[in-house]
Design brief:
Blueprint: H1 4-11, E1 26-30, E2 33-36, E3 41-44, H2 47-50, H3 59-71, H4 82-95, E4 100-105, H5 108-123, E5 127-131, H6 140-143, E6 160-164, H7 179-194, E7 202-205, H8 221-232, E8 235-239, E9 266-269, E10 280-285, H9 286-289, H10 304-319, H11 322-341, E11 347-353, E12 356-361, H12 371-383, E13 386-387, E14 389-391, E15 398-401, H13 409-423
Parallel strand pairs: 3-13, 5-6, 5-7, 7-8, 8-9
Antiparallel strand pairs: 1-2, 2-3, 4-10, 9-10, 11-12, 12-15, 14-15
Helix pairs in contact: 3-10, 4-10, 7-8, 11-13, 12-13
């Protein structure tokens, strides 16, 4: 019988990426650990791309899913749906957006796609501002606004996209400036850009770039941008697919590090809220959300089962103060990782907030990306029993570390030690 990998290659597209030279089949998980088909246990520091937010096999979530599945699995948005309304009420209240409305999707890609639809209809414009090094999904419209060549396979798009500088603090023409001067330079760049274009619908930005390698601007940059946008009537979309729900530790939403000019007009979310179930969504103030003048539904967005999972997961997150845990344990973890990276010539920078940490690797003594080193450490970490991710706009040379938010101090210490052992293999 052929291996599962052989069967995968025979029926799955070549462009569906797999980690590891010998790809891993994960069969089950518990807490912050998963097991492969050979029965080997791993400490999971990537959580299915930041999606298993609280814990694997969290009893509260599995119980909610099973109970709801025993009642009804599906109905669509054409019928009243109590779990959907209840979760929407909670998210609207947490969003910080006044008079908020919530629309559920099945993924972050679809959420961002919906946000682009709302913005272009509201503003009667197909022009979008996006950040360099960004990633917003894999649909036709979202790859068209993705500022990361590795994840944007076509230049064809229904949108005209212009890219703004500022999301990457440590690279580019303003890297050597102070935070204050960096923000001033980026705002001047935005002002100049707006002088060369017609009406713009929206700026979409990740407060901390995910696929881009956990890069972030100084706090307050998007508030400064917002003041410029407001003068032009341009909407601000905060892509919180990876930063939402307290992962950064300091804030519940990433945009709150840039809140001096108020909340975003539109907020998108996904990943962690479902703890592995397919939930995405958009929050917007009522006049923006209600601007669509045609009928629309979602067949699978707002499914009773996924909504039950989201409600249980959100309740667990809030009741156990996992945002606070991300802040405390994440602070310990990043210090341990910085210590592990000390003296490793290939490490250019360790950066991050809460349980969202990146290690950028370059060729020693230079700023040239080192994807081979990133691949080596990824493989070595697995051999030592640790699963991590990778990304980065400069040729995928950043290691991404994002454990479930219930990570314990002991597990943080263990993971840092395993990572140090993997880094030594460079």
């Amino acid at each position: 019988m052929s291996s599962l990998f052989d069967r995968h290659k025979a029926v799955i597209p070549d462009w569906v990426a797999l980690y590891y030279k010998d790809p891993l089949e994960i069969t089950h998980g518990e807490g912050r650990h998963v097991w492969d088909a050979d029965g080997r246990r791993y400490l999971d520091f990537f959580g299915g791309i930041l999606t298993t937010m609280t814990a694997h096999a969290l009893p509260e979530v599995t119980k909610a899913v099973a109970e709801q599945a025993g009642r009804i699995i599906h109905s669509s948005t054409l019928y009243l749906n109590r779990p959907m309304v209840e979760l929407a009420e909670r998210i609207a209240g947490l969003s910080g957006i006044p008079d908020a409305r919530v629309f559920f999707t099945t993924s972050g890609t679809e959420a961002n796609d919906t946000a682009l639809l709302l913005a272009t209809v509201y503003r009667r414009s197909n022009q979008i501002l996006a950040m360099r090094n960004s990633y917003h999904g894999r649909s036709f419209s979202t790859v068209g606004i993705t500022g990361n060549r590795a994840w944007s396979p076509t230049s064809l798009s229904p949108l005209q996209t212009l890219y703004v500088h500022g999301a990457v603090r440590g690279r580019g023409p303003y890297a050597d400036l102070s935070d204050e001067r960096f923000i001033e330079a980026c705002v001047a760049d935005l002002e100049d850009l707006l002088g060369h274009t017609r009406d713009v619908a929206a700026l979409i930005a990740e407060p901390v770039q995910g696929v881009g390698g956990f890069t972030a601007p100084p706090d307050g940059l998007y508030a400064a941008f917002r003041r410029v946008l407001d003068r032009h009537g341009i909407l601000w979309i905060s892509d919180e697919v990876q930063t939402g729900w307290g992962r950064t530790g300091e804030h519940f939403w990433g945009w709150q590090a840039h809140d001096q000019a108020g909340p975003p007009d539109i907020l998108t979310f996904a990943k962690g809220i479902g703890n592995g179930m397919s939930i995405g969504g958009v929050v917007a103030r009522a006049d923006v959300m209600n601007c669509v003048d045609a009928n629309s539904i979602s067949t699978f967005g707002g499914s009773p089962v996924t909504m039950a999972a989201g409600l249980a997961n959100l309740s667990y997150l809030l009741e156990h103060d996992l945002q606070g845990n991300a802040r405390r344990v994440g602070g310990l973890l990043i210090e341990r990782i910085r210590a592990a990276c000390a003296g490793v010539d290939a490490v250019r920078e360790v950066r991050g907030r809460g349980l969202m940490i990146g290690i950028e690797l370059t060729e020693p003594g230079s700023d040239r990306a080192n994807p081979d080193a990133a691949a080596t450490v990824l493989e070595a970490a697995r051999e030592h029993g640790l699963l991590i991710g990778k990304g980065g706009g400069h040729n995928t040379s950043t290691l991404r570390i994002a454990p479930p938010l219930s990570l314990t101090v002991a597990e943080a210490e263990e993971g840092a030690a395993l990572l140090e052992a993997a880094l030594r293999e460079l």
